[in-house]
Amino acid sequence: xxxxxxxxxxxxxxxxxxxxxxxxxxxxxxxxxxxxxxxxxxxxxxxxxxxxxxxxxxxxxxxxxxxxxxxxxxxxxxxxxxxxxxxxxxxxxxxxxxxxxxxxxxxxxxxxxxxxxxxxxxxxxxxxxxxxxxxxxxxxxxxxxxxxxxxxxxxxxxxxxxxxxxxxxxxxxxxxxxxxxxxxxxxxxxxxxxxxxxxxxxxxxxxxxxxxxxxxxxxxxxxxxxxxxxxxxxxxxxxxxxxxxxxxxxxxxxxxxxxxxxxxxxxxxxxxxxxxxxxxxxxxxxxxxxxxxxxxxxxxxxxxxxxxxxxxxxxxxxxxxxxxxxxxxxxxxxxxxxxxxxxxxxxxxxxxxxxxxxxxxxxxxxxxxxxxxxxxxxxxxxxxxxxxxxxxxxxxxxxxxxxxxxxxxxxxxxxxxxxxxxxxxxxxxxxxxxxxxx
Length: 438
Ligand code: PMP
Fold this sequence. Notes:
Blueprint: H1 9-18, H2 25-29, E1 38-39, E2 42-43, E3 45-46, H3 57-70, H4 80-100, E4 108-111, H5 114-129, E5 135-139, H6 148-157, E6 160-164, H7 174-180, E7 185-191, H8 203-212, E8 216-220, E9 239-243, E10 254-258, H9 260-265, E11 276-279, E12 284-286, H10 300-316, H11 318-337, E13 342-345, E14 356-361, H12 366-375, E15 378-379, E16 381-383, H13 388-394, E17 400-404, H14 411-428, H15 433-437
Helix pairs in contact: 1-10, 3-10, 4-10, 5-6, 11-14, 12-14
4'-deoxy-4'-aminopyridoxal-5'-phosphate (PMP) binds at residues 113-115, 143, 145-146, 191, 195, 220, 222-223, 243, 386.
Protein backbone atom coordinates (compact mmCIF):
# COMPACT_ATOMS: atom_id res chain seq x y z
CA UNK A 1 0.00 0.00 0.00
CA UNK A 2 1.29 3.49 -0.73
CA UNK A 3 2.25 5.66 2.23
CA UNK A 4 -0.73 7.72 3.39
CA UNK A 5 -0.70 11.14 1.79
CA UNK A 6 -1.97 14.48 3.04
CA UNK A 7 -3.87 15.70 0.01
CA UNK A 8 -5.44 18.84 1.44
CA UNK A 9 -3.09 19.32 4.32
CA UNK A 10 0.30 19.04 2.80
CA UNK A 11 0.63 22.64 1.72
CA UNK A 12 -0.67 24.12 4.93
CA UNK A 13 1.47 21.73 6.89
CA UNK A 14 4.60 22.38 4.84
CA UNK A 15 4.29 26.14 5.09
CA UNK A 16 3.75 25.94 8.86
CA UNK A 17 6.91 23.95 9.27
CA UNK A 18 9.05 26.74 7.91
CA UNK A 19 8.34 28.91 10.92
CA UNK A 20 5.72 29.08 13.65
CA UNK A 21 4.88 32.59 12.47
CA UNK A 22 3.79 31.11 9.15
CA UNK A 23 1.06 29.05 10.81
CA UNK A 24 -2.00 29.80 8.76
CA UNK A 25 -4.96 28.59 10.74
CA UNK A 26 -7.37 29.16 7.86
CA UNK A 27 -5.35 26.84 5.65
CA UNK A 28 -5.29 24.26 8.42
CA UNK A 29 -9.05 24.59 8.82
CA UNK A 30 -9.55 23.97 5.13
CA UNK A 31 -8.17 20.46 5.68
CA UNK A 32 -11.00 19.59 8.09
CA UNK A 33 -14.24 19.08 6.16
CA UNK A 34 -16.50 19.18 9.22
CA UNK A 35 -15.37 22.67 10.17
CA UNK A 36 -17.31 24.16 7.28
CA UNK A 37 -20.67 22.75 8.38
CA UNK A 38 -23.34 24.53 10.34
CA UNK A 39 -25.07 23.60 13.59
CA UNK A 40 -28.58 24.98 14.21
CA UNK A 41 -28.06 27.22 11.21
CA UNK A 42 -24.89 28.75 12.65
CA UNK A 43 -21.26 28.09 11.68
CA UNK A 44 -19.85 25.30 13.81
CA UNK A 45 -17.51 26.45 16.58
CA UNK A 46 -16.09 23.18 17.85
CA UNK A 47 -14.68 23.52 21.35
CA UNK A 48 -15.04 19.95 22.57
CA UNK A 49 -11.63 18.75 21.47
CA UNK A 50 -10.85 17.28 24.88
CA UNK A 51 -13.56 14.71 24.17
CA UNK A 52 -12.44 14.02 20.62
CA UNK A 53 -10.73 16.02 17.90
CA UNK A 54 -11.96 16.51 14.35
CA UNK A 55 -10.21 14.68 11.49
CA UNK A 56 -8.38 16.12 8.51
CA UNK A 57 -9.28 14.91 5.04
CA UNK A 58 -6.00 12.97 4.85
CA UNK A 59 -7.03 10.77 7.78
CA UNK A 60 -10.51 10.17 6.39
CA UNK A 61 -9.06 9.35 2.98
CA UNK A 62 -6.30 7.10 4.32
CA UNK A 63 -8.87 4.98 6.13
CA UNK A 64 -11.23 4.89 3.14
CA UNK A 65 -8.34 4.12 0.79
CA UNK A 66 -7.27 1.18 2.94
CA UNK A 67 -10.74 -0.34 2.65
CA UNK A 68 -10.98 0.49 -1.06
CA UNK A 69 -7.56 -0.81 -2.04
CA UNK A 70 -5.74 -2.90 0.54
CA UNK A 71 -8.24 -4.49 2.90
CA UNK A 72 -7.27 -7.93 4.22
CA UNK A 73 -6.62 -9.43 7.61
CA UNK A 74 -3.09 -9.14 8.92
CA UNK A 75 -0.34 -11.40 10.25
CA UNK A 76 -1.90 -14.58 8.90
CA UNK A 77 -2.47 -15.00 5.16
CA UNK A 78 0.15 -16.04 2.68
CA UNK A 79 -1.48 -13.85 0.02
CA UNK A 80 -0.19 -10.57 -1.28
CA UNK A 81 -3.08 -8.45 -0.08
CA UNK A 82 -2.59 -9.77 3.44
CA UNK A 83 1.09 -8.86 3.29
CA UNK A 84 0.21 -5.38 2.07
CA UNK A 85 -2.26 -4.86 4.90
CA UNK A 86 0.22 -6.23 7.42
CA UNK A 87 2.91 -3.90 6.13
CA UNK A 88 0.55 -0.91 6.42
CA UNK A 89 -0.40 -1.86 9.97
CA UNK A 90 3.22 -2.35 11.03
CA UNK A 91 4.22 0.91 9.31
CA UNK A 92 1.62 2.61 11.48
CA UNK A 93 3.25 1.06 14.55
CA UNK A 94 6.62 2.39 13.41
CA UNK A 95 5.11 5.86 12.97
CA UNK A 96 3.71 5.73 16.51
CA UNK A 97 7.05 4.56 17.85
CA UNK A 98 8.84 7.53 16.29
CA UNK A 99 6.11 10.01 17.18
CA UNK A 100 6.00 9.20 20.90
CA UNK A 101 9.73 8.62 21.25
CA UNK A 102 9.71 4.89 22.01
CA UNK A 103 12.87 2.79 21.83
CA UNK A 104 11.38 0.38 19.30
CA UNK A 105 8.13 -1.05 18.00
CA UNK A 106 8.11 -3.87 20.55
CA UNK A 107 7.14 -1.23 23.07
CA UNK A 108 4.01 -0.13 21.20
CA UNK A 109 0.88 -2.23 21.61
CA UNK A 110 -2.27 -1.15 19.81
CA UNK A 111 -5.43 -1.09 21.90
CA UNK A 112 -8.92 0.30 21.31
CA UNK A 113 -8.21 3.44 23.34
CA UNK A 114 -6.57 4.77 26.50
CA UNK A 115 -9.17 3.08 28.67
CA UNK A 116 -8.32 -0.34 27.29
CA UNK A 117 -4.60 0.32 27.68
CA UNK A 118 -5.03 1.14 31.38
CA UNK A 119 -7.19 -1.94 31.90
CA UNK A 120 -4.55 -4.07 30.22
CA UNK A 121 -1.76 -2.74 32.40
CA UNK A 122 -3.69 -2.64 35.67
CA UNK A 123 -5.02 -6.17 35.31
CA UNK A 124 -1.96 -7.86 33.83
CA UNK A 125 0.64 -6.20 35.97
CA UNK A 126 -1.55 -5.78 39.02
CA UNK A 127 -2.59 -9.43 39.28
CA UNK A 128 1.03 -10.52 39.20
CA UNK A 129 2.56 -7.84 41.41
CA UNK A 130 0.04 -6.38 43.85
CA UNK A 131 -0.85 -7.81 47.23
CA UNK A 132 -2.44 -6.84 50.55
CA UNK A 133 -1.10 -3.60 52.01
CA UNK A 134 0.39 -2.40 48.74
CA UNK A 135 -0.41 1.14 47.68
CA UNK A 136 -1.38 2.68 44.34
CA UNK A 137 -0.91 6.44 44.29
CA UNK A 138 -3.17 8.42 41.92
CA UNK A 139 -3.95 12.12 41.73
CA UNK A 140 -7.41 13.42 42.57
CA UNK A 141 -7.59 14.80 39.03
CA UNK A 142 -7.60 11.41 37.30
CA UNK A 143 -10.06 10.70 34.52
CA UNK A 144 -12.13 7.65 35.46
CA UNK A 145 -10.13 5.72 32.85
CA UNK A 146 -7.07 5.99 35.08
CA UNK A 147 -8.95 5.46 38.31
CA UNK A 148 -11.52 2.71 37.98
CA UNK A 149 -9.17 0.00 36.60
CA UNK A 150 -6.75 0.65 39.49
CA UNK A 151 -9.68 0.75 41.93
CA UNK A 152 -10.81 -2.66 40.71
CA UNK A 153 -7.42 -4.32 40.85
CA UNK A 154 -6.73 -2.77 44.28
CA UNK A 155 -9.99 -4.27 45.55
CA UNK A 156 -9.18 -7.65 44.05
CA UNK A 157 -5.65 -7.77 45.47
CA UNK A 158 -6.26 -6.10 48.85
CA UNK A 159 -4.20 -3.05 47.87
CA UNK A 160 -5.09 0.53 48.76
CA UNK A 161 -5.52 3.68 46.65
CA UNK A 162 -3.66 6.76 47.90
CA UNK A 163 -5.06 10.07 46.56
CA UNK A 164 -2.49 12.73 45.72
CA UNK A 165 -3.75 16.30 46.23
CA UNK A 166 -3.39 19.24 43.85
CA UNK A 167 -1.79 22.62 44.33
CA UNK A 168 -3.55 25.97 43.85
CA UNK A 169 -3.25 25.78 40.08
CA UNK A 170 -4.60 22.25 39.88
CA UNK A 171 -1.28 20.48 39.31
CA UNK A 172 -0.27 17.50 41.39
CA UNK A 173 1.28 18.93 44.57
CA UNK A 174 4.85 17.62 44.46
CA UNK A 175 5.59 18.31 48.12
CA UNK A 176 2.50 16.44 49.22
CA UNK A 177 3.28 13.62 46.77
CA UNK A 178 6.77 13.30 48.28
CA UNK A 179 5.15 12.81 51.70
CA UNK A 180 2.50 10.36 50.47
CA UNK A 181 4.48 8.16 48.09
CA UNK A 182 6.39 5.82 50.36
CA UNK A 183 7.93 2.35 50.40
CA UNK A 184 4.55 0.59 50.20
CA UNK A 185 3.75 2.37 46.94
CA UNK A 186 3.88 -0.14 44.08
CA UNK A 187 2.24 2.01 41.38
CA UNK A 188 2.29 5.74 40.76
CA UNK A 189 -0.28 6.47 38.03
CA UNK A 190 -1.20 10.01 37.04
CA UNK A 191 -2.54 12.05 34.20
CA UNK A 192 0.05 14.11 32.36
CA UNK A 193 -2.53 16.76 31.47
CA UNK A 194 -5.84 17.13 33.28
CA UNK A 195 -8.80 16.78 30.95
CA UNK A 196 -10.69 19.26 33.13
CA UNK A 197 -8.13 21.85 34.22
CA UNK A 198 -5.74 21.78 31.29
CA UNK A 199 -2.91 21.74 33.85
CA UNK A 200 0.30 20.00 32.77
CA UNK A 201 1.72 17.88 35.58
CA UNK A 202 5.47 17.71 36.29
CA UNK A 203 5.98 14.33 34.69
CA UNK A 204 9.72 14.00 35.15
CA UNK A 205 9.68 14.93 38.85
CA UNK A 206 6.80 12.55 39.50
CA UNK A 207 8.53 9.77 37.56
CA UNK A 208 11.70 10.29 39.62
CA UNK A 209 9.63 10.12 42.81
CA UNK A 210 7.97 6.88 41.72
CA UNK A 211 11.28 5.34 40.73
CA UNK A 212 12.89 6.34 44.03
CA UNK A 213 10.47 4.02 45.87
CA UNK A 214 10.60 1.29 43.22
CA UNK A 215 7.03 1.88 42.00
CA UNK A 216 5.76 1.27 38.50
CA UNK A 217 5.25 4.73 36.96
CA UNK A 218 2.35 5.01 34.53
CA UNK A 219 1.30 8.21 32.83
CA UNK A 220 -2.07 8.77 31.17
CA UNK A 221 -1.03 10.74 28.10
CA UNK A 222 -4.51 10.97 26.51
CA UNK A 223 -4.63 14.77 26.86
CA UNK A 224 -0.90 15.33 26.47
CA UNK A 225 -0.24 13.54 23.18
CA UNK A 226 -2.44 15.92 21.11
CA UNK A 227 -0.58 19.00 22.37
CA UNK A 228 3.17 18.43 22.62
CA UNK A 229 5.99 15.97 21.96
CA UNK A 230 5.89 13.14 24.49
CA UNK A 231 9.54 12.02 24.13
CA UNK A 232 8.62 9.09 26.34
CA UNK A 233 11.95 7.39 26.69
CA UNK A 234 13.45 10.58 28.14
CA UNK A 235 10.80 11.09 30.81
CA UNK A 236 11.62 8.31 33.23
CA UNK A 237 8.16 6.73 33.11
CA UNK A 238 7.63 3.00 32.64
CA UNK A 239 4.40 3.06 30.66
CA UNK A 240 1.94 5.42 29.03
CA UNK A 241 -1.37 5.34 27.19
CA UNK A 242 -3.04 7.49 24.56
CA UNK A 243 -6.01 7.55 22.17
CA UNK A 244 -5.72 8.31 18.44
CA UNK A 245 -9.11 10.02 18.30
CA UNK A 246 -7.98 12.92 20.48
CA UNK A 247 -5.07 13.72 18.13
CA UNK A 248 -6.73 13.88 14.69
CA UNK A 249 -6.89 10.11 14.30
CA UNK A 250 -9.83 7.71 14.09
CA UNK A 251 -11.83 6.35 17.00
CA UNK A 252 -11.15 2.76 18.04
CA UNK A 253 -7.34 2.97 18.14
CA UNK A 254 -5.20 3.54 21.19
CA UNK A 255 -1.72 2.72 22.37
CA UNK A 256 -0.16 1.17 25.40
CA UNK A 257 3.50 2.08 25.44
CA UNK A 258 5.75 0.37 27.96
CA UNK A 259 9.43 -0.28 28.42
CA UNK A 260 10.21 -3.54 26.70
CA UNK A 261 11.28 -5.21 29.96
CA UNK A 262 7.93 -4.26 31.51
CA UNK A 263 5.81 -5.47 28.59
CA UNK A 264 7.92 -8.61 28.34
CA UNK A 265 6.94 -9.48 31.91
CA UNK A 266 3.19 -8.79 31.49
CA UNK A 267 0.88 -11.75 31.77
CA UNK A 268 -1.21 -12.03 28.62
CA UNK A 269 -4.43 -10.10 29.23
CA UNK A 270 -6.81 -11.05 26.47
CA UNK A 271 -6.05 -14.34 24.79
CA UNK A 272 -7.02 -15.91 21.47
CA UNK A 273 -5.88 -15.56 17.89
CA UNK A 274 -2.66 -13.79 16.88
CA UNK A 275 -1.22 -13.66 20.38
CA UNK A 276 0.00 -17.24 20.65
CA UNK A 277 2.91 -19.00 19.01
CA UNK A 278 1.74 -22.59 19.55
CA UNK A 279 -1.22 -24.17 21.27
CA UNK A 280 -2.62 -27.66 21.71
CA UNK A 281 -4.86 -29.11 24.39
CA UNK A 282 -1.99 -29.32 26.87
CA UNK A 283 0.20 -26.28 26.45
CA UNK A 284 0.34 -22.83 24.99
CA UNK A 285 3.30 -20.62 24.14
CA UNK A 286 2.93 -16.90 23.62
CA UNK A 287 3.82 -14.86 20.57
CA UNK A 288 6.55 -12.22 20.74
CA UNK A 289 5.94 -8.62 21.70
CA UNK A 290 3.99 -6.61 20.80
CA UNK A 291 1.59 -9.09 19.16
CA UNK A 292 1.28 -11.04 22.41
CA UNK A 293 -0.71 -8.07 23.73
CA UNK A 294 -2.97 -7.78 20.67
CA UNK A 295 -5.39 -10.70 20.72
CA UNK A 296 -7.79 -10.92 17.78
CA UNK A 297 -8.14 -8.74 14.70
CA UNK A 298 -7.19 -5.16 15.53
CA UNK A 299 -8.53 -1.95 14.01
CA UNK A 300 -6.30 -2.18 10.96
CA UNK A 301 -7.85 0.67 8.98
CA UNK A 302 -7.89 2.76 12.14
CA UNK A 303 -4.16 2.26 12.59
CA UNK A 304 -3.62 3.34 8.98
CA UNK A 305 -5.74 6.44 9.64
CA UNK A 306 -3.74 7.10 12.81
CA UNK A 307 -0.55 6.98 10.74
CA UNK A 308 -1.98 9.70 8.50
CA UNK A 309 -2.87 11.77 11.58
CA UNK A 310 0.68 11.50 12.90
CA UNK A 311 2.03 12.51 9.49
CA UNK A 312 -0.25 15.52 9.54
CA UNK A 313 0.85 16.59 13.02
CA UNK A 314 4.49 15.98 12.17
CA UNK A 315 4.26 18.10 9.04
CA UNK A 316 2.67 20.97 10.96
CA UNK A 317 5.45 20.67 13.53
CA UNK A 318 5.20 21.06 17.30
CA UNK A 319 6.70 24.56 17.44
CA UNK A 320 3.93 25.87 15.18
CA UNK A 321 1.16 23.98 16.94
CA UNK A 322 2.40 24.96 20.39
CA UNK A 323 2.79 28.63 19.46
CA UNK A 324 -0.74 28.69 18.05
CA UNK A 325 -2.12 27.05 21.17
CA UNK A 326 -0.24 29.40 23.49
CA UNK A 327 -1.78 32.34 21.66
CA UNK A 328 -5.24 30.75 21.99
CA UNK A 329 -4.61 30.20 25.71
CA UNK A 330 -3.65 33.81 26.29
CA UNK A 331 -6.67 34.99 24.31
CA UNK A 332 -9.06 32.65 26.13
CA UNK A 333 -7.78 33.51 29.60
CA UNK A 334 -8.21 37.21 28.90
CA UNK A 335 -11.62 36.73 27.26
CA UNK A 336 -12.95 34.52 30.04
CA UNK A 337 -11.80 37.01 32.67
CA UNK A 338 -14.11 39.50 31.00
CA UNK A 339 -17.23 37.38 31.62
CA UNK A 340 -18.97 38.48 34.80
CA UNK A 341 -19.42 35.73 37.36
CA UNK A 342 -17.16 33.26 35.54
CA UNK A 343 -14.97 31.20 37.85
CA UNK A 344 -12.16 29.42 36.06
CA UNK A 345 -10.64 26.30 37.62
CA UNK A 346 -7.05 25.42 36.87
CA UNK A 347 -4.04 27.53 35.89
CA UNK A 348 -4.81 31.22 35.34
CA UNK A 349 -1.66 31.80 33.24
CA UNK A 350 -0.99 30.45 29.73
CA UNK A 351 2.22 28.70 30.82
CA UNK A 352 2.15 25.07 31.89
CA UNK A 353 -1.30 24.44 30.57
CA UNK A 354 -3.07 23.45 27.37
CA UNK A 355 -6.11 25.14 25.88
CA UNK A 356 -8.67 23.31 28.02
CA UNK A 357 -10.78 25.59 30.21
CA UNK A 358 -13.34 24.52 32.78
CA UNK A 359 -15.44 27.01 34.66
CA UNK A 360 -18.73 27.78 36.35
CA UNK A 361 -20.95 30.82 35.89
CA UNK A 362 -22.34 32.19 39.10
CA UNK A 363 -26.11 31.67 39.32
CA UNK A 364 -26.27 29.81 35.98
CA UNK A 365 -27.02 26.11 35.53
CA UNK A 366 -24.11 24.79 33.44
CA UNK A 367 -26.40 22.56 31.37
CA UNK A 368 -28.63 25.53 30.49
CA UNK A 369 -25.53 27.48 29.49
CA UNK A 370 -24.34 24.55 27.33
CA UNK A 371 -27.71 24.39 25.57
CA UNK A 372 -27.69 28.12 24.93
CA UNK A 373 -24.19 27.95 23.46
CA UNK A 374 -25.18 24.96 21.34
CA UNK A 375 -28.07 26.98 19.87
CA UNK A 376 -25.39 29.41 18.66
CA UNK A 377 -23.33 26.61 17.10
CA UNK A 378 -20.78 26.63 19.93
CA UNK A 379 -20.09 23.06 21.05
CA UNK A 380 -18.71 22.77 24.57
CA UNK A 381 -19.00 19.99 27.13
CA UNK A 382 -20.89 20.20 30.40
CA UNK A 383 -20.86 17.79 33.32
CA UNK A 384 -18.38 15.97 35.50
CA UNK A 385 -16.00 15.17 32.63
CA UNK A 386 -15.46 11.61 33.90
CA UNK A 387 -13.59 13.02 36.87
CA UNK A 388 -15.94 12.76 39.83
CA UNK A 389 -13.23 12.88 42.54
CA UNK A 390 -11.94 16.11 40.99
CA UNK A 391 -15.44 17.60 40.91
CA UNK A 392 -15.79 16.79 44.61
CA UNK A 393 -12.36 18.30 45.29
CA UNK A 394 -13.37 21.47 43.43
CA UNK A 395 -16.80 21.63 45.06
CA UNK A 396 -18.33 21.57 41.59
CA UNK A 397 -21.23 19.24 42.25
CA UNK A 398 -23.39 20.81 39.52
CA UNK A 399 -20.68 20.13 36.96
CA UNK A 400 -18.52 22.53 35.02
CA UNK A 401 -18.60 23.94 31.51
CA UNK A 402 -15.50 22.89 29.56
CA UNK A 403 -14.27 24.59 26.40
CA UNK A 404 -11.30 22.79 24.84
CA UNK A 405 -9.52 24.24 21.83
CA UNK A 406 -7.18 22.65 19.34
CA UNK A 407 -4.89 23.52 16.48
CA UNK A 408 -7.69 24.58 14.12
CA UNK A 409 -9.52 26.90 16.51
CA UNK A 410 -9.25 30.63 15.99
CA UNK A 411 -9.08 33.74 18.14
CA UNK A 412 -12.45 34.83 16.80
CA UNK A 413 -13.99 31.54 17.91
CA UNK A 414 -12.66 32.20 21.41
CA UNK A 415 -14.20 35.67 21.30
CA UNK A 416 -17.51 34.15 20.15
CA UNK A 417 -17.38 31.79 23.12
CA UNK A 418 -16.90 34.70 25.52
CA UNK A 419 -19.74 36.58 23.87
CA UNK A 420 -21.98 33.51 24.09
CA UNK A 421 -21.14 33.15 27.77
CA UNK A 422 -22.02 36.79 28.42
CA UNK A 423 -25.35 36.15 26.74
CA UNK A 424 -25.84 33.06 28.92
CA UNK A 425 -25.18 35.09 32.05
CA UNK A 426 -27.58 37.84 31.08
CA UNK A 427 -30.36 35.44 30.04
CA UNK A 428 -30.00 32.64 32.56
CA UNK A 429 -28.62 34.05 35.77
CA UNK A 430 -30.86 33.26 38.73
CA UNK A 431 -31.46 36.26 40.95
CA UNK A 432 -29.40 36.17 44.13
CA UNK A 433 -31.53 35.75 47.31
CA UNK A 434 -30.99 39.46 48.15
CA UNK A 435 -32.03 40.64 44.70
CA UNK A 436 -35.05 38.33 44.74
CA UNK A 437 -36.28 39.83 48.05
CA UNK A 438 -35.93 43.38 46.75
N1 PMP B 1 -7.64 9.94 30.19
C1 PMP B 1 -7.90 11.21 29.97
C2 PMP B 1 -7.07 12.27 30.67
C3 PMP B 1 -8.94 11.57 29.11
O1 PMP B 1 -9.22 12.85 28.90
C4 PMP B 1 -9.68 10.55 28.47
C5 PMP B 1 -10.80 10.87 27.52
N2 PMP B 1 -11.61 11.93 27.88
C6 PMP B 1 -9.34 9.23 28.73
C7 PMP B 1 -8.31 8.95 29.59
C8 PMP B 1 -10.08 8.10 28.12
O2 PMP B 1 -9.90 8.09 26.75
P1 PMP B 1 -10.69 7.03 25.86
O3 PMP B 1 -12.15 7.31 26.10
O4 PMP B 1 -10.27 7.34 24.48
O5 PMP B 1 -10.31 5.69 26.33
